[in-house]
Amino acid sequence: MKVTGTGGKEYTIEPRANLSKAHLSKANLVHADLSGADLADANLSEANLMDTNLSNANLSKASLKGADLADAYLDEANLMDTNLSNANLSNANLRDANLEWANLSGADLADANLSGAVWNDETVFPEGFEIPEMSRDLDWQDGDFGL
Question: What are residue 41's phi and psi, to 5 degrees?
Fold first, then answer.
């Protein structure tokens, strides 16, 4: 699948794609398979990522501000220092995801699966969101997320 990003550059959307620093704001990526893709520092603001497979993807420092990630698969994704403010994450699977330093202010997390996800004191959750207890030991410091 080919997508034209901001500025006219064409990107190939496929599993394990290298899309680091890609400019894909407002892109329509519904049902795309980006499992294992490198999207570090990418701009996906206001992108439509409904039902997209982002399992094991690296989205560290990416901007997903206002993106629609409803029903998306983000299990074991690296979302460290990612801007997810005002994103729709309803019914998203964030199992075992790394949410350290992530900004989720204003995000919709209704029925999202956060089991096993890790976050820290700098992670910003939506106002009024009841943060679940961590269900994982902090073994990730020893390499679970490639740190």
Answer: 65, 15
Contacts with 88 (C-beta within 8 Å, 6 or more apart), sequence order: 67, 68, 69, 70, 107, 108
Radius of gyration of the CA atoms of the chain, in A? 14
Asked if residue 121 is part of any domain, the answer here is yes
Q: What letter does residue 12 receive in the DSSP assignment?
A: E
Average pLDDT over residues 78-97: 97
Q: What is the pTM of this model?
A: 0.87
pLDDT more than 70, % of the chain: 90
Number of domains in the chain: 1
Q: Confirm if 13 and 30 have CB atoms less than 8 A apart.
A: no
Q: Please report the pLDDT score of residue 135 as a whole number.
A: 47
Provide the residue range defining the domain that includes 52. 1-129
pLDDT of the residue at 142 = 46
| CATH of residue 2 | 2.160.20.80
Nearest to 24 by CA among 38, 40, 3: 3
The Cα–Cα gap between 83 and 42 comes to 11
| Token pair recorded at residue 133 | 């207890």
In a domain, 54, yes or no: yes
